[in-house]
């Protein structure tokens, strides 16, 4: 015999346990905007407060995984609000959860789109993971170790950081790809970020390289890891520092250098800044003035030249569309640039004898891709390293993404991930 529950009892359930069961779980679906559909996987877990959740998303097309929402909540029985805050934009998702369906509207900078999910079955895990800590002297570094399924000792890769305050989530997608294909992966928070102590803003190249070496040593010592098959993957700044790490650590048995600088670091800075200003210059003469200003800025930052001429040029060009003021005295830019100005990547590459994969986007606006690749490959071959693979992906940017359409969502160069996975698996 069915028993009808009192209305007051049903209403009392709505914002609590029943709502949590409704939203909690794994969802597969799409974000839809400007005629473009972006496949997305959403994972939702209950938080401590009623009606509040911890939500993350991943997208193979965007090459991200485990990206946290700043807020996720259910109001009443079914009204869902999730807020995603990025470096430059905030996206708000409002909709309703009804059984195995979740749908609604997404809003970003006044532009609207839609999202739709269906509840997904949770498949067997292809890898396990655990949070770990290790140390470089007094600096405590926190990370996550992803271990592939299976009992055979696995090869392993440590992911090095790009520039700025980068946490472990920046490399999580690639780490998952590696672990899924049988290669253990260690990702960690840069010093001064997330769970790691220290301060990357006052770190010299040697400090960051020693952090990476500590990570390599930690990974090689873990149960289930074959210490003879441990290597590194570094992107941008991490790729530029990768040869220093490999030269100083005999544990490193292979190197993947992604968008690594093969020219002097001051030249990379000139290249990057001028590319960022190009769209704002009005004429060839204006472009020449911009180049003059940036060259003086880089000379001061990387070589310690006095500020007098830079300040004079800043006063002259302050009303130009492309102008930006020099960082104020005491800004970390000056000390950080001076430290990296003394770093010579080719001198370190000349010491590398292990297999190397060099990957670049053909339209990289931050690192001169073809020149860097040619210089690094030549330095390696002159030193007798015959296991050097170079791939440049046409049309791809610094992060191997192709130009986005009206939706603003980019896509990845088609061969980029298969190239990485195949090369790692072969070694």
Give me some keywords for this one:
single chain, 427 residues, alpha+beta, 8-stranded mixed beta sheet, 11 helices, 32% strand, disordered N terminus
Structural description of this entry:
The chain has 427 residues and is an alpha+beta fold. The protein has helices at residues 7-23, 172-180, 205-220, 237-248, 265-277, 284-303, 308-317, 332-341, 345-349, 369-382, 416-426; strands at residues 25-33, 36-46, 53-59, 64-68, 71-75, 79-85, 90-98, 101-108, 111-119, 127-136, 139-148, 154-160, 183-188, 225-235, 252-258, 356-361, 388-393, 401-402, 411-412. The chain has a nine-stranded antiparallel β-sheet with strand order 4-3-2-1-9-8-7-6-5. It has an eight-stranded mixed β-sheet with strand order 10-11-13-12-14-15-16-17, with helices on both faces. The chain has a two-stranded antiparallel ribbon with strand order 18-19. Strand 7 (90-98) and strand 8 (101-108) form a beta hairpin. Helix 5 (265-277) runs antiparallel to helix 6 (284-303) and helix 6 (284-303) runs antiparallel to helix 7 (308-317). The longest helix is centred in the last third of the chain and has 20 residues, at 284-303. The protein is globular. The model is unreliable at 1-20 (pLDDT under 50).
Set down the secondary structure blueprint.
Layout: H1 7-23, E1 25-33, E2 36-46, E3 53-59, E4 64-68, E5 71-75, E6 79-85, E7 90-98, E8 101-108, E9 111-119, E10 127-136, E11 139-148, E12 154-160, H2 172-180, E13 183-188, H3 205-220, E14 225-235, H4 237-248, E15 252-258, H5 265-277, H6 284-303, H7 308-317, H8 332-341, H9 345-349, E16 356-361, H10 369-382, E17 388-393, E18 401-402, E19 411-412, H11 416-426
Parallel strand pairs: 12-13, 12-14, 14-15, 15-16, 16-17
Antiparallel strand pairs: 1-2, 1-9, 2-3, 3-4, 5-6, 6-7, 7-8, 8-9, 10-11, 11-13, 18-19
């Amino acid at each position: 015999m069915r028993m009808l529950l009192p209305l007051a009892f049903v209403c009392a359930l709505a914002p609590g346990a029943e709502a949590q069961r409704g939203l909690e779980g794994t969802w597969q679906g799409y974000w839809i905007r400007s005629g473009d559909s972006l496949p997305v996987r959403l994972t939702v877990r209950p938080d401590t407060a009623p009606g509040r959740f911890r939500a993350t998303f991943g997208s193979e097309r965007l090459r991200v995984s485990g990206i946290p929402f700043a807020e996720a909540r259910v109001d009443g029985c079914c009204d869902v609000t999730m807020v995603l805050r990025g470096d430059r934009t905030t996206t708000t998702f409002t909709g309703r959860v009804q059984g195995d369906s979740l749908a609604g509207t997404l809003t970003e900078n006044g532009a609207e789109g839609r999202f739709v999910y269906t509840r997904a079955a949770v498949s067997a895990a292809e890898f396990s993971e655990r949070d770990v800590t290790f140390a470089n002297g007094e600096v405590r570094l926190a990370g996550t170790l992803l271990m592939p399924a299976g009992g055979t000792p696995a090869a392993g890769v440590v992911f090095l950081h790009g520039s700025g305050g980068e946490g472990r989530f920046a490399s999580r997608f690639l780490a998952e790809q590696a672990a899924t294909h049988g290669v253990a992966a260690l990702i960690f928070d840069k010093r001064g970020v997330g769970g790691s102590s220290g301060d990357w803003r006052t770190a010299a190249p040697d400090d960051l390289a020693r952090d990476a070496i500590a990570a390599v040593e930690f990974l090689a010592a873990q149960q289930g890891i074959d210490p003879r098959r441990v290597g590194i993957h570094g992107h941008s700044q991490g790729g530029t520092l990768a040869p220093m790490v490999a030269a100083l650590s005999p544990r490193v048995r292979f190197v993947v250098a992604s968008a690594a600088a093969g020219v002097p670091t001051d030249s990379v800075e000139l290249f990057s800044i001028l590319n960022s200003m190009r769209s704002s210059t009005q004429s060839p003469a204006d472009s020449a003035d911009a180049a003059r200003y940036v060259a003086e800025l880089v000379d001061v930052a990387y070589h310690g030249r006095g500020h007098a001429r830079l300040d004079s040029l800043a006063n002259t060009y302050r009303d130009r569309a492309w102008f930006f003021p020099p960082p104020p005295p005491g800004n970390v830019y000056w000390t950080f640039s001076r430290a990296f100005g003394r770093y010579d990547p080719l001198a370190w590459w000349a010491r590398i004898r292990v297999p190397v994969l060099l990957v670049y986007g053909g339209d990289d606006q931050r690192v001169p891709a073809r020149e860097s690749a040619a210089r690094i490959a030549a330095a390696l071959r002159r030193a007798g390293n015959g296991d050097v693979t170079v791939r440049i992906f046409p049309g791809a940017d610094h992060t191997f993404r192709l130009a986005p359409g009206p939706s603003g969502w980019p896509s990845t160069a088609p061969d980029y991930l298969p190239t990485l996975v195949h090369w790692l698996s072969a070694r």
